[in-house]
Design a protein that fits this description.
Length: 77
């Protein structure tokens, strides 16, 4: 039996960032991409020049171990 890594729902929280509209990076907001001088509708934004961005952030809380975690020098408290 292998060790199963599972997110503890009591120590983890998922934060959903509301969907926002951003300029399409594929076409630079123009909605068209030129290939060999011919305009083609951008498939990333479907020609609108804008895309919707959705993201979610998972935060996990775990115990800080003095002498172990502060020895790493990476964490800033
Ligand atoms: Zn686009």
């Amino acid at each position: 039996m292998g060790k199963v890594m599972k997110l503890d729902p009591m120590k983890s929280s998922v934060r959903y960032v509301p969907t926002r509209v951003a300029v399409c990076k594929e076409c630079g907001g123009k909605g068209v991409i030129y290939t060999d001088g011919k305009p083609f509708k951008c498939t990333s934004c479907n020609g609108s020049g804008r895309v919707k961005v959705t993201c979610q952030v998972i935060s996990t809380v775990s115990a800080f171990v003095p002498g172990k975690d502060d020895a790493e020098g990476e964490l800033t408290v």
